[in-house]
Amino acid sequence: MSNSRAYPILHTSDVGGALHAVGHLLSVADLRNTEVQLWARTGRHSGLPRYLEAYGHWLDGGGEDRMWVDAAREQETGPQDPADPLVDVTVEVYGLGLIEDRLVETIGSDQAHVDWCHNGWPAVCCLDLGRQVKHAHVQLVFNASDIWATEPADRHTVFVHVGGREGEAERAEWLARQAGLAVVGPSQHGF
């Protein structure tokens, strides 16, 4: 079993610009069987109502699209307000477009990440790279600097996930260029 390598291609405080870069990357991807997953850590009282208003219709609902809340985080140590304990929220959507409608206003200042897992990156003939299927992801991390959104930051980061084999770093550079960008830092061990 292998993991992806996640390459940062944009650090910005402009969420609209980050979503625009994500759109460019997705225009290159094979979007069949796309799954979009939002994960956020938020206050039970200060933030959870935003997520429930935006995505609560999928909470414990039927169908593929779903939402769940992990209240176990309330026991976690760290900088928490006892009156507003932290909870983890996860929303999974099969297909594109459903999660993005209220995404920015829902997340606000929460640390969060949105992952677009799709069917593959195309072959890049000029780099002698075949189609890449297993580790094809685009990720937007809000208010954090790492792919797990656990290290707070005052910016957002777009990552491209590719395989860890030889040549995949060049694929990440090629993908970044498709969005008019470049790799802006070292890769992280992905998922």
Account of the 3D structure:
The chain is 20% helix and 28% strand. Strands 3-4-2-5-6-7-1-8 form an eight-stranded antiparallel β-sheet. With 191 residues, the chain is of the alpha+beta class. The chain is globular and about 55 Å long. The longest helix has 14 residues, at 15-28. The chain has helices at residues 15-28, 48-55, 103-107, 168-178, and strands spanning 5-12, 35-43, 66-70, 86-94, 111-117, 137-142, 156-162, 188-189. The protein contains four helices and eight strands, in the order βαβαββαβββαβ.
Count of helical stretches:
4
The geometry reads as: globular
Oligomer: single chain
**What class do helices, strands and sheet pairing give?**
alpha+beta
Tell me the series of helices and strands, N- to C-terminal.
Answer: EHEHEEHEEEHE
> In which range does the helix fraction lie?
10-25%
Cα-to-Cα separation, first versus last residue:
10 Å
How big is the Rg?
A: 17 Å
Q: Which runs of at least 5 residues are low in confidence (pLDDT < 50)?
A: none
- Can you give the mean pLDDT? 88
Percentage of β-strand residues: 25-35%
Which sequence of strands runs across the widest sheet?
3-4-2-5-6-7-1-8
DSSP summary, beta strand count: 8
Largest sheet: 8 strands, antiparallel
